[in-house]
Model the fold of this input.
Amino acid sequence: MRLITIIQSSVFVPVWLRILLLLAGGAKVWGAGIYAGCHFGGKDIRMGVGTFVNRGVLFDGTAPITLGRQVAVGHGAKFVTSTHEIGPSDGRGGRVYHRPITVGDGTWIGAGAIVLPGVTIGAGCIIGAGAVVTRDCEPDGLYAGNPARRVRDLPVDAPRPATQD
Done:
């Protein structure tokens, strides 16, 4: 997967080829749009149809990462699935452990947001730019801050803006 990550992250690789390379490496990303500069640290990564991943996103990938359908991920977001237990004073980074991340359908992850190990983000959420998600997020909420907290409820069936012809 390491060689595939190096090749697919190039700005010279078109999106369709990037998807094929990641599929060949074992990631389940058919129907997603993934832009240049993304790092995939493992192959147990799944993305639903219509998911969009912008430039420079990190998928730690030491545990499964699942993004639902129509998820939008902003520039430089990070999905971190590994962490350490707190060790003794002579080495605080103790034993490593890994926990999966799940993001529900229709969620928007803002630029620079960090989603930490074991987090589940419910469907229809917005995670604000730069937020640090340390706990599960209930569906249809706007979460922001460090640590991220629910700022407000979002309408379940928000009207779509009219398109100009």
